[in-house]
Specification:
Blueprint lengths: L10 E11 L3 E13 L6 E15 L2 E15 L12 H7 L28 H7 E21 L2 E20 L2 E3 L3 E3 L2 E25 L2 E26 L11 E25 L3 E12 L8 E12 L13 E15 L10 E4 L3 E3 L4 E3 L2 E5 L8 E14 L4 E13 L2 E3 L14 E3 L1 E18 L2 E19 L6 E3 L10 E3 L7 E4 L2 E4 L3 H6 L1 E2 L2 E2 L9 E3 L14 E2 L7 E11 L2 E11 L7 H5 L34
Antiparallel strand pairs: 1-2, 2-3, 3-4, 4-5, 5-6, 6-9, 7-8, 9-10, 10-11, 11-12, 12-13, 13-14, 14-19, 15-18, 16-17, 19-20, 20-23, 21-22, 23-24, 24-33, 25-26, 26-27, 27-32, 28-31, 29-30, 33-34
Length: 632
């Protein structure tokens, strides 16, 4: 099937596989191809993959490997031409539709906006005049060797190596689109990247059963190393359609960077069970990351879990006809997080920061610190307490699993904004910024049954999580985010006492329908919105200072749902199977930032049809859309 035969958003997928072997040796070879067309025209993705897996056993020795080879291709959307529309999806919503799409007389062949309008690029021109493509080739190789040393004691070596080579090509044709977008010469940007990942794991495991007692233990050491480097170059002025850097003549630029990180771990696990009734599990990890300074490189992360199979107790036997499974569980554990950029504990010095000095105006070369170091950053920790139960009824046809948990993340790794006066505010440093607590319940109800050759399973899920920032930074620190439009204010604030990314907005209280209503909106005889006129929005003076400002923002909801739910089913009959799953959320808020542009009518964008019902003096009590949404 050719790509052109697929409708937008469709995909084709092919698989082939085979398995062979003997008593001591087995192998499996499989391959696949995926072709998926994007919902947006000119975007697509395809992937080829080949997988080989084999195992060999001889006496006390067992060895094997898995090799996966993958070739991928992406054609993505243009990233935006500097206007306020952004990528083609944003431009399609904001572009005024009366402008012509094509213009044979223009360079590039596409029309666009002109006159006193906001600089929105034509989405059709963006998709056709810029071609961003990415190709990657990956090889994932994993091998292992396992030796039975003595009875119940095994040594295992795992080795892994991944090599991913990527090539990105972004070519832009010469164009003149409307009066606002002009590219005199063809542009070409190319980058090559290589990422190498190496893993080695050494483990000793012990498994012994003595009567009703079972003991399973493991100790090990692991080492992970990641290396990544990128080289890039760009030029302009090549003949149209030629995508070779040496064909360019102007705007010559090159760059490159590299990083390397390592993680070592010492680990141990002990599992003791008695009579298939009581299970005690203890684990311990000591991890060391190169992303932290030598004084804070290592973190210790223990965990303990206890389970009780009540159904296997003698006093429970009379109920087993109805209750076929009852297991009670409890656990407490600590995990570490080291997901931050490399080298953050060292300051970054940028060279070629030239400076003009003296009466002769000589240009002196120099260097400047562009990133502030935080050498005392350390591991972020996540402490989780969990209690739960698993129940089965009627020979486990009906199953219920429920958990209650408290997860507290401490020493959270965040980039915290710093003042502009520091000279490096564009690269906010990482700090251990605070503590966040999540409490919640998770439950799943499953029903399994079989009728002849037809089997089916029905599953329902429910999750409710309460998210709260306990403290952040110095205690009064706030992190703003969620800027909804090119020119708008941030819509969210993360601060102590509320959820992460909570919406803080200036609330509205209807529309001024007359000058009398404008005059009545006052404090101690002073107008709260002195520039307002009939048809404008009435804003709530939340802090009561007699003026509308960012200080009047108030909590308006959380992006986190009060609860989420799901429903699904798996069924099969002979050689046919069918699966589906639906999920949803309730109670979370979504901020539609596009309405500021599409319904604001204060900037020359494409307007929403809702503005056809904007406020007028003839319909003052009917319309919910103001004549302008500009704060007054």
């Amino acid at each position: 099937m050719a790509k052109g035969d697929l409708p937008d958003g469709a995909h084709a997928e092919l698989h082939a596989w085979g398995q062979r072997g003997s008593e001591n040796f087995t192998y499996n070879l499989s391959g696949g191809y995926l072709d998926q067309q994007g919902i947006v025209k000119k975007t697509d993705y395809d992937r080829y993959n080949l997988r080989l897996k084999s195992d060999f056993t001889k006496g006390r020795v067992r060895i094997g490997e898995t090799i996966i080879l993958t070739r991928e291709y992406w054609r993505t959307m243009a990233g935006g031409w500097g206007g306020q529309g952004g990528n083609p999806v944003g431009s399609a919503l904001k572009m005024i539709p009366v402008f012509q799409v094509y213009d044979p007389t223009a360079v590039g062949g596409y029309g666009g906006a002109y006159g006193q309008v906001v600089n929105i690029a034509s989405p059709v021109a963006q998709l056709n005049l810029e071609v961003p493509e990415t190709r990657t080739t990956s090889a994932i190789i994993n091998g292992y060797a396992e030796v039975s040393l003595i009875d119940a004691l095994k040594y295992r070596l795992n080795l892994g190596y991944t090599n991913t080579f990527g090539a990105h090509n972004d070519y832009t044709y010469p164009y003149k689109v409307g009066a606002l977008f002009n590219n005199a010469d063809a542009d070409l940007y190319q980058s090559k990247s290589q990422k190498e990942y190496f893993l080695q794991e050494h483990t000793l495991s012990y498994n012994k059963e003595l009567g009703k007692h079972n003991l399973n233990g493991l100790v090990g050491f692991t080492y992970q190393n990641t290396r990544f480097d990128v080289q890039s170059g760009s030029k302009s002025g090549m003949p149209s359609g030629i995508q070779v850097l040496d064909a360019g003549t102007t705007n010559i630029a090159s760059g490159g960077y590299a990083y390397e990180s390592a993680l070592v771990s010492y680990l141990g696990r002990l599992v003791y069970s008695y009579d298939n009734r009581y299970v005690l599990t203890g684990t311990f990890r000591r991890d060391g990351s190169s992303r932290f300074s030598p004084d804070y490189r290592y973190g210790n992360f223990p965990a303990v879990a206890l389970a009780w199979n009540v159904v296997n107790e003698s006093f429970f036997q009379p109920l087993q006809g109805v209750v076929s499974n009852l297991k009670l569980r409890s656990s407490y554990g600590v995990l570490g997080n080291q997901e931050l950029s490399d080298y953050q504990y060292d300051p970054t010095i940028t060279s070629n920061a030239n400076y003009v000095l003296g009466s002769t105006q000589l240009l002196w070369p120099g260097a400047i610190q562009t990133t502030f170091a935080t050498p005392n950053i350390k591991w972020e920790t996540s402490k989780t307490f969990n209690v739960g139960a698993d129940l089965g009824f009627f020979e486990n046809k009906l199953g219920l699993s429920a958990d209650y948990f408290i997860r507290r993340n401490s020493d959270i790794l965040l980039r915290v904004p710093i003042p502009l006066t520091t000279g490096a505010s564009a690269n906010a440093p990482y700090i251990n910024a605070g503590q966040i607590t999540n409490k919640g319940v998770e439950a799943a109800l499953t029903y399994n049954n079989k009728m002849g050759e037809f089997t089916y399973q029905v599953t329902g899920t429910f999750t409710a999580i309460d998210n709260n920032v306990d403290f952040l930074g110095t205690g009064t620190q706030q992190i703003s985010g969620g800027q909804p439009t090119h020119h708008g204010q941030s819509a969210t604030i993360t601060k102590a006492g509320g959820p992460v990314g909570a919406f803080y907005l200036i609330k509205t209280d209807g529309i001024f329908n007359s000058q009398e209503e404008v005059d009545a909106h006052s404090v101690e005889g002073r107008l709260i919105q002195p520039a307002a006129k009939p048809g404008d929005i009435r804003f709530v003076d939340y802090n009561g200072d007699g003026a509308i400002s960012q200080d009047d923002r108030q909590y308006c909801g959380s992006p986190n749902p009060k609860f989420s739910y799901g429903f699904g089913s798996n069924s099969s009959w002979k050689n046919f199977d069918l699966s589906f799953f639906f999920q949803g959320t309730y109670g979370n808020k979504i901020y539609n930032g596009l309405r500021e542009d599409l319904e604001g009518m204060n900037l020359e964008f494409n307007y929403s049809p809702a503005t056809l019902n904007a406020w007028t003096r003839r319909t003052p009590r009917i319309s919910r859309v103001p004549s302008s949404t500009t704060p007054t």
